[in-house]
Amino acid sequence: MGKIYSRAINPEQYDLLDTNWGYKNSDSPFRRYLYHYLKKYKTSWKNANVLEIGCGSGWLLNLIQKEGAREVGGIEPSKNNFELIKKNFSGLRVHQIRLEDFKSKEKFDVIISVLVFNHIKDLNKVFKKINILLTKGGELHIIVPDYDYYRLSKFDYQIDIEEINEDEYAVQVNRRDGIIADVVRNIEVYKKKASKTGLVFVEDMKLYPTKELLEKVPKYRLFKKICREHLLKFKKL
Questions:
Q1: Which of 1, 31, 41, 67: disulfide with 5, CB 3.0–4.6 Å?
Q2: Residue 202 and residue 56: Cα distance in Å, rounded?
Q3: Residue 230 lies in a domain
Q4: Residue 166 located in a structural domain
Q5: For residue 15, what is the domain's CATH number?
Q6: Could you say which DSSP state residue 106 is in?
Q7: For residue 117, what are the domain limits?
């Protein structure tokens, strides 16, 4: 695999000096856009034990806790993000570790992951781990990139792509506030990998720019009718 792919699956990517995407702002328009869709599942969080994989600066875990979750916990491999969590949300229970290395005796009713599976190398291993961590009837909610949107030319960004196979590619976006690389997959890849571990696919919610995002960041009006990401829901029977 090439350099872009290697960067995309690097668990320390967010600690690199050329990556600075403004993670100190817990109330950015983009995060509000993501939460607009995530909160449609908030009834699942009520009185639940919730784990977030790749919890970044802790903004989502904090909101889930406020929505009435019984317990919340997070996994975050980035040292920079982990330090932000300790500074801004000191009450959150977060482990600085990769999911592959995470061990827990407790089971979780809901596991959430936002734009993290696009940095995971071995989906089979991760879905197996999640299946073990979930309670019977537990749910997995993940947000992943749209296959076509992440290929598009956008604004003044420099976008470089490495083809992997017909269902996957690695993409690196260089913009003024930093560089980030992702592995982008067809949605069917996630469905097939999850089903092999006993997780049943429930829903594919397509995420389009919200009215608020278009007002706050007008440049996205060029893509207002284009799906940006997908919120996928799985269940352990």
A1: 1
A2: 26
A3: yes
A4: no
A5: 3.40.50.150
A6: S
A7: 3-147+187-236
